[in-house]
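Postdoc handover notes: sequence design on the structure in folder B. Input C-alpha cells:
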C-alpha cells in the first residue's frame, strides 16, 4: 500500500477530477498486478545461474527496453527452457529486431513470455517455420500458432540462445507480457530472489531547464548542466551554486548496477520533492508498446540526439501520456520567493536501494527575457498543425507533438542534392506519430526517373538517413518521425554483392554472400538454385546472406545459383555462380 498512500495525496490536489479517477484506477490495477506477480515464480530459462546484462525499462533510442537480458557466457547455442506450462502461440523470424523469437502463452499464469535473439529452434518448430518460409518464399515470417499444436511443459527445451536480429552480442532477450492486454511487465519481479542487488543507483549529471520566457537560471534562459561531487557517504552533492527565478524543470542522468556485474541498468523509481512536498514520481513496472515512443518526452531528446546521453526529465510535457509518471503542476518548480528551495530527487531500484540527491536552489530575482518567437510558426501539441512554404508542405497529426512549439524554418541550397535543404527547427523535435512531409523537386531534375529520388534527413554530423517517399506531380511525399533538416537525394547505384570465401562453400556445405547498399538500403532479395527458390537467411546487422545445403531440396551434383538484390530505389544487382556438391 505504500505506493498508493504516497501517491493519492498527490492526485487529490490535481485540478482535473477526471484524470484523478483514471490515475487512481491505474494504480489500483498496478497494485493488483504487484500482488499477483509477487506470488508467481518462473523457472530459469537457462541451465546456469542468472546474470543480467539489461534491465526492464532501460533507456534506448526511441523506446524503452521491453524486457530483461540474460547473459549467456558470451557464446551462443545454450538450451532455452520454457519457464512455465503453456503453449507456443507465435514464432517470428526477422533480419532485425528480435531475430528468431518464440512467444509462449501461459493461461494459468495469465502471462505471455517472449524469447528473443535465438540461434535456432527445436526440430518441430524448425519444420513448421521452414515450411512457411518456402510457402511464402521469404526468410522473414511471422506465425500465429493454435493452442493445441505446440504445447510445452515447464523446463522443456524450446530452442537455443543466439545473437540474431538487432542483438549487439550473444544473450537472451526475455519478456513477460500481460495476457489480457499485452502490456509489458518487469520480468525481474519474477526472479527477484535469484538476483542479488545491494548497490544503489549512481548519479551522472543534473540538467536545469529554465522554461523559455518564464524562467531563468544563473542569469541564462538556456538549459545548464550542473556538476556533482560525492559526500562522505558517497551520495552526490551539488558543487555549483544555483540561483533561479520563475519556472524551471530538472533532468537527471543516472544508472543502476547490480552485484557482480559491470553493466548499467535503468531506474525503477524516481521521486522529486520540493520543500518536502512531492511534485514528481516515476514508477517503471509496466508500459504498452503504444507508450514506448514517449521515451522521447520522458527524456531530453535533444541531449540524446546530439551527445548520446539520457537525461530523465522530472517534469511532464502536456503531450506525454506515460502511465508510469505522476506529477503535481507537471513537475515544474516555481521559484517566486527569495529563499532556499530544498529540492530532493531520490532514485531507487527494485530492491529498495536508494540514492538521495539534494539540490538547493536559491531564489533570486533576475530578469526573465521574453521568448524570442519572431519568424517562427506556432504549433500546439494537441492540434492538427500545417506548415507550408515554397517547395515544402508539412502536416502534423493531432497529439503528435509533446509540447507547444514555435517552429523555426529556413531554406538553403545544398550542392549535390535535388531540392532545397529545408530546416524544420534548429534542434531535433521528436514526433509521437508520423507527420506527412512533401518536398518539391528542383525543376532541373524532374525528368529523372522518379523512383530513384527520395527524401533524406541530414544529421548534424553529416550523416544521411534515407526516408524515401512517393513521387507525385513533381513532389516527393513521405512520413517523418522527427523535425530536422530534409532534402531530396538521388540514388542510382545498385547494391553490391560480395561472395564470402566461395572456394570453401562445398566443404562447409554453406553459401555466404554479403550484400550492401550505399544510400537507400536493401529492399528485397531473392535466391534461386536451378531456377527454384532457395532459402537464404539474412543477418541484417552483418549484411550477410547464408544458405545451408538442404539435402531434401538440393540433390548432389551440378547446380546454378542466381541471386538478385534490389534497393529501395529499384536499382538491381544480379550474381550468378555454378557449384557442385
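Designed sequence:
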Amino acid at each position: 500500500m505504500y505506493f498508493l498512500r504516497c501517491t493519492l495525496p498527490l492526485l487529490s490536489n490535481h485540478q482535473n477530477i477526471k484524470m484523478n479517477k483514471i490515475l487512481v484506477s491505474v494504480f489500483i490495477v498496478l497494485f493488483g498486478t504487484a500482488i499477483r506477480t509477487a506470488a508467481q515464480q518462473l523457472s530459469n530459462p537457462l541451465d546456469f545461474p542468472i546474470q543480467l546484462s539489461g534491465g526492464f525499462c532501460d533507456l534506448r533510442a526511441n523506446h524503452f527496453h521491453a524486457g530483461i537480458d540474460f547473459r549467456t557466457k558470451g557464446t551462443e547455442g545454450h538450451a532455452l527452457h520454457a519457464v512455465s506450462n503453456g503453449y507456443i502461440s507465435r514464432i517470428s523470424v526477422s533480419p532485425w529486431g528480435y531475430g528468431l523469437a518464440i512467444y509462449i502463452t501461459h493461461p494459468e499464469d495469465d502471462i505471455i513470455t517472449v524469447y528473443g535473439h535465438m540461434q535456432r529452434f527445436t526440430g518441430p518448430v524448425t519444420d513448421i517455420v521452414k515450411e512457411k518460409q518456402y510457402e511464402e518464399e521469404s526468410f522473414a515470417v511471422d506465425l500465429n500458432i493454435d493452442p493445441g499444436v505446440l504445447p510445452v511443459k515447464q523446463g522443456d527445451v524450446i530452442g537455443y540462445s543466439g545473437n540474431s536480429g538487432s542483438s549487439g552480442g550473444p544473450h537472451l532477450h526475455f519478456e513477460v507480457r500481460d495476457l489480457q492486454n499485452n502490456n509489458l511487465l518487469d520480468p525481474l519481479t519474477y526472479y527477484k530472489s535469484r538476483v542479488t542487488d545491494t548497490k544503489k543507483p549512481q548519479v551522472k549529471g543534473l540538467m536545469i531547464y529554465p522554461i523559455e520566457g518564464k524562467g531563468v537560471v544563473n542569469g541564462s534562459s538556456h538549459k545548464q548542466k550542473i556538476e556533482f561531487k560525492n559526500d562522505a557517504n558517497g551520495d552526490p552533492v551539488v558543487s555549483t551554486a544555483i540561483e533561479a527565478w520563475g519556472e524551471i524543470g530538472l533532468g537527471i542522468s543516472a544508472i543502476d548496477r547490480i552485484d557482480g556485474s559491470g553493466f548499467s541498468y535503468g531506474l525503477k523509481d524516481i521521486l522529486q520533492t520540493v520543500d518536502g512536498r512531492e511534485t514528481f514520481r516515476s514508477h517503471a513496472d509496466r508500459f504498452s508498446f503504444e507508450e514506448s515512443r514517449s521515451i522521447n518526452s520522458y527524456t531530453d531528446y535533444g541531449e540524446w540526439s546530439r551527445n548520446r546521453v539520457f537525461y530523465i526529465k522530472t517534469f511532464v510535457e502536456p503531450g506525454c501520456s506515460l502511465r508510469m509518471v505522476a506529477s503535481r503542476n507537471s513537475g515544474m518548480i516555481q521559484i517566486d520567493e527569495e529563499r532556499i528551495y530544498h529540492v530532493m530527487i531520490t532514485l531507487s531500484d527494485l530492491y529498495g536501494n536508494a540514492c538521495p540527491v539534494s539540490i538547493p536552489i536559491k531564489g533570486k530575482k533576475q530578469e526573465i527575457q521574453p521568448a524570442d518567437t519572431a519568424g517562427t510558426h506556432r504549433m500546439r501539441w494537441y492540434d492538427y498543425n500545417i506548415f507550408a512554404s515554397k517547395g515544402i508542405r508539412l502536416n502534423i497529426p493531432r497529439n503528435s507533438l509533446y509540447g507547444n512549439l514555435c517552429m523555426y524554418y529556413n531554406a538553403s541550397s545544398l550542392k549535390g542534392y535535388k531540392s532545397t535543404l529545408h530546416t524544420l527547427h534548429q534542434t531535433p523535435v521528436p514526433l509521437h506519430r508520423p507527420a506527412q512531409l512533401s518536398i518539391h523537386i528542383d525543376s532541373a531534375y524532374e525528368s529523372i526517373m522518379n523512383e530513384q529520388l527520395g527524401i533524406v534527413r541530414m544529421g548534424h554530423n553529416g550523416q544521411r538517413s534515407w526516408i524515401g517517399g512517393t513521387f507525385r506531380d513533381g513532389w516527393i511525399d513521405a512520413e517523418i518521425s522527427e523535425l530536422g533538416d530534409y532534402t531530396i537525394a538521388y540514388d542510382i547505384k545498385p547494391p553490391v554483392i560480395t561472395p564470402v570465401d566461395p572456394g570453401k562453400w562445398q566443404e562447409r556445405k554453406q553459401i555466404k554472400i554479403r550484400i550492401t547498399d550505399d544510400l537507400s538500403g536493401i529492399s528485397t532479395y531473392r535466391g534461386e538454385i536451378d531456377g527454384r527458390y532457395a532459402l537464404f537467411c539474412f543477418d541484417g546487422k552483418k549484411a550477410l546472406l547464408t544458405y545451408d545445403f538442404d539435402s531434401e531440396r538440393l540433390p548432389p551434383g551440378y547446380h546454378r545459383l542466381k541471386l538478385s538484390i534490389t534497393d529501395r530505389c529499384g536499382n538491381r544487382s544480379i550474381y550468378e555462380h555454378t557449384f557442385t556438391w
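Context for whoever picks this up: Residues 17-39 form the longest helix (23 residues). Don't rerun without checking with the PI first.
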